[in-house]
Amino acid sequence: MEIAVVGGGLCGPLAGLFLARHGHQVTLYERRPDPRVHGAVGGRSINLALSARGIDALERLGLAEEILSQVLPMRGRTMHATDGTQAFQSYSADGTKAINSVSRGMLNEVLLDHALAEPGITVLFEHQIVGAAEDGTLDISTPAGQISRQHQAVIGTDGAYSAIRDRIVRSAHTAFTQEPLPWGYKELSIPAAADGTWALDPDSLHIWPRRHSMMIALPNLDRSFTATLFWPHTGEHGFAGLGDAATILDRFRAEYPDAMAVMPNLVDDYLDNPVGPLSTVRLWPWTLGRLAVIGDAAHAVVPFYGQGMNCAFEDVVELDRCLGETGDDVLAALQLCSERRKPNADAIADLALDNFVEMRDRAGSPWFRLATRAEHRLERAMPDRFMSLYELVSFTTVPYSEARNRGRRRRKLVGAAVSALDAISEPILRRGSH
Ligand SMILES: Cc1cc2nc3c(=O)[nH]c(=O)nc-3n(C[C@H](O)[C@H](O)[C@H](O)COP(=O)(O)OP(=O)(O)OC[C@H]3O[C@@H](n4cnc5c(N)ncnc54)[C@H](O)[C@@H]3O)c2cc1C
Questions:
Q1: Residues 233 and 182: beta-carbon distance below 8 Å
Q2: Nearest CA to ligand 1 atom 27
Q3: Does 312 sit in the ligand 1 pocket, CB within 6 Å?
Q4: Which pairs from 306-310 meet CB under 8 Å and 24+ separation?
Q5: DSSP one-letter code for 100
């Protein structure tokens, strides 16, 4: 079948590779120029956490080894209190499992390299889809002018502001919401120290939870870190109102003094880098005629579980499975895939919003640390029967909806146990806070 994949970001090239290996002819349209020639265009996060679901997809294509040789494993989170005190919590009970900090630019380039080398895939850069019809016709803006082309199937992997989704949404039977978070994000840099060493522990994801705002930092291979501020757009602790060096430095001195000490470019970074939007997309159905969407186009989530890309990659694994089950009937496979993925996309959207509150408010609290320790103890005692929600989401391919249900039940049990302990034994809690 002759298929258009719209969007050469993270999900598009991966989908193209799976489809081509099923013997389909794929045209991959990307609106940007070739990032391998022109460099990555900024605006999205510089690095991402790659975990089990994303790795599973890469393994199925034989690409995992190449990518994993260029990542930095993070075994846990290091919480930074305002007074500079740091506390490390491992992500898994045995302390060995890690999520991986990966460069978005590198990952995109490797995926595009493989797509370009794959017989059966044509990649067209600087081709922006500006219109789509149910019968698979695309209106495409190219450097040589606008053209129209019809395809037997069109898969929109064109991100949170998808043009293909725009057409699906215009159908009378579509339910669609794009719920913006009243918070945005801005990236800052923490360069390597003057002697070439890491300014922070590179083995972990760093979090500065401040309830009304938050900052995180992930390591890069060049020994720098990329820090991301997650702040409200407005209000006392928001981005609005910080417009000059003095106010920026005052805010950091009060909220993130230890980070500020390793951010020599803070003011320039802050003033130069944009504030990005964060939103949750919910859509149903994901298909209309010969059109379909997967990845962020179908279900963008807020980034607080580090799962948006991992979830998008898992969509493609499910599509591969559905192609097998439908005898390579692409339209039937897209329909089946969307039915199976929708409950899981909804689950990770909810979990990501829950984790926003957890990272921002609870991650630094003694209660949270005690609950995490209790969970890890149970995991070690009953490895076959007990796995925390975080482990289920990040270190397995158990469907997100099942992970959410199992994890929430267990967190509740652990929470009740810790609260009971709290009531009878205040000193234990006090010990937990050191
Ligand atoms: C701050 C932040 C941090 C994140 N951290 C993580 C993380 O740690 N782990 C994780 O798993 N996920 C993370 N994510 C989510 C992740 O970035 C997305 O889920 C992922 O990029 C989705 O891939 P995609 O291919 O669906 O969309 P995208 O990566 O957005 O790709 C869409 C592509 O389509 C192209 N395009 C758009 N419109 C058109 C058009 N009309 N015509 C042609 N081409 C078009 C775009 O140029 C782009 O190349 C994070 C997101 C943010 C914002």
A1: yes
A2: 159
A3: yes
A4: 306/48, 306/49, 306/51, 306/99, 306/394, 307/51, 307/53, 307/348, 307/351, 307/352, 307/393, 307/394, 307/400, 308/352, 309/10, 309/11, 309/48, 309/50, 309/54, 310/50, 310/51, 310/52, 310/53, 310/54
A5: E
Residue 222 Cα to ligand 1 midpoint, Å, equals: 23
Q: What is the pTM assigned to this prediction?
A: 0.93
48-93 pLDDT tens trace = 999 999 999 999 999 999 999 999 999 999 999 999 999 999 999 8
15 lines ligand 1 (CB under 6 A): no
Does the C-beta of 187 come closer than 6 Å to ligand 1? no
CA-CA distance, 159 to 22, in Å (whole number)?
Answer: 24
Nearest to 293 by CA among 163, 108, 152, 180: 163
CA distances in angstroms from 253 to 6, 84, 176, 226, 230, listed in the order given: 45, 11, 42, 19, 17
* 185 ligand 1 Cβ < 6 A: yes
